[in-house]
């Protein structure tokens, strides 16, 4: 189901469940989301005149995001270096005026960060969980991003198939962060990418091993050779590692890595 950011929260299963009880003593305050002085220059470089908007999002993550279980309490003091700056650095890999789909957007990382840093982009945040999409819609409204960001509740496969019998979603760039290994990620994201567009996946130190293991699957799914880039060099330390895959060919219905069938029953799907 697609949501306009100005719409109310609804969908399969009705009203999203409320947040789980949280021990008040463990809750961070808005002060935990304050920009550390040593990161101020990097933040100004990456967010420019929208730094105040980034700060408002950081505060939202550190307060409401923690209460609703979207990030852990221990992440609040690390929001800027571990999350906001890490994600904002990826903007250098996205062309001017591009359409972007952020798969598994969660709390809006990197999707909302890119929307703040790059107002020229048009983004769709794809997220299957109701409580997360509720947060995303509220964040988009509260941050004044309704003109450039929309929220889709569902899986990537549903978005690519055409939600509600409508047109399939697609974009110039598809982003993902901490979603899945490269083979499954390609099977979900490449069908959302226009031919000649690219998947930009934020990855960690094991990215070379992932590429070696899954390059054949990526090629079978119509992707080109995975290429690693370091984003934010000379701005943040460490730089953000991304792997890019260009969709070179349009193949049939995407099939991810095969899963072994369990004895006496059918294999489990995603």
UniProtKB/TrEMBL annotation:
<protein>
    <recommendedName>
        <fullName>Ribosomal RNA small subunit methyltransferase G</fullName>
        <ecNumber>2.1.1.-</ecNumber>
    </recommendedName>
</protein>
<feature type="binding site">
    <location>
        <position position="177"/>
    </location>
    <ligand>
        <name>S-adenosyl-L-methionine</name>
    </ligand>
</feature>
<feature type="binding site">
    <location>
        <position position="109"/>
    </location>
    <ligand>
        <name>S-adenosyl-L-methionine</name>
    </ligand>
</feature>
<keyword id="KW-0963">Cytoplasm</keyword>
<dbReference type="Pfam" id="PF02527">
    <property type="entry name" value="GidB"/>
</dbReference>
<comment type="function">
    <text>Specifically methylates the N7 position of a guanine in 16S rRNA.</text>
</comment>
<dbReference type="InterPro" id="IPR003682">
    <property type="entry name" value="rRNA_ssu_MeTfrase_G"/>
</dbReference>
<keyword id="KW-0949">S-adenosyl-L-methionine</keyword>
<keyword id="KW-0698">rRNA processing</keyword>
<feature type="region of interest" description="Disordered">
    <location>
        <begin position="1"/>
        <end position="32"/>
    </location>
</feature>
<keyword id="KW-0808">Transferase</keyword>
<dbReference type="GO" id="GO:0005829">
    <property type="term" value="C:cytosol"/>
</dbReference>
<dbReference type="InterPro" id="IPR029063">
    <property type="entry name" value="SAM-dependent_MTases_sf"/>
</dbReference>
<comment type="similarity">
    <text>Belongs to the methyltransferase superfamily. RNA methyltransferase RsmG family.</text>
</comment>
<feature type="binding site">
    <location>
        <position position="104"/>
    </location>
    <ligand>
        <name>S-adenosyl-L-methionine</name>
    </ligand>
</feature>
<dbReference type="GO" id="GO:0070043">
    <property type="term" value="F:rRNA (guanine-N7-)-methyltransferase activity"/>
</dbReference>
<feature type="binding site">
    <location>
        <begin position="156"/>
        <end position="157"/>
    </location>
    <ligand>
        <name>S-adenosyl-L-methionine</name>
    </ligand>
</feature>
<keyword id="KW-0489">Methyltransferase</keyword>
């Amino acid at each position: 189901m697609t949501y306009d950011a100005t719409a109310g929260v609804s969908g399969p299963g009705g009203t999203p469940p409320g947040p789980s009880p949280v021990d008040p003593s463990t809750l961070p305050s808005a002060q935990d989301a304050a920009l550390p002085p040593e990161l101020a220059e990097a933040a100004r470089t990456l967010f420019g005149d929208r730094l105040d908007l980034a700060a408002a999002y950081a505060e939202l993550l550190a307060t409401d995001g923690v209460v609703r279980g979207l990030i852990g309490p221990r992440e609040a003091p690390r929001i800027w270096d571990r999350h906001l700056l890490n994600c904002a650095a990826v903007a250098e890999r996205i062309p001017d005026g591009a359409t972007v789909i952020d798969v598994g957007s969660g709390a809006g990382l990197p999707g909302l960060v890119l929307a703040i840093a790059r107002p020229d982009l048009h983004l769709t945040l794809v997220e299957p969980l109701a409580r997360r999409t509720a947060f995303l819609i509220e964040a988009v409204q509260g941050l004044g991003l309704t003109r450039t960001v929309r929220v889709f509740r569902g899986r990537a496969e549903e978005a690519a198939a055409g939600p509600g019998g409508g047109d399939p979603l697609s974009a110039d760039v598809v982003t993902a962060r901490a979603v899945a290994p490269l083979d499954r990620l390609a099977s979900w994201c490449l069908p959302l990418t226009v031919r000649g567009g690219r998947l930009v996946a934020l990855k960690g130190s094991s990215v070379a091993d992932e590429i070696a293991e899954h390059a054949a699957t990526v090629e079978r799914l119509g992707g080109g050779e995975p290429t690693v880039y370091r984003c934010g060099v000379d701005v943040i330390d460490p730089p953000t590692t991304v792997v890019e895959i260009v969709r070179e060919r349009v193949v049939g219905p995407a099939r991810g890595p095969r899963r072994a069938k369990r004895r006496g029953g059918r294999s489990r799907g995603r």
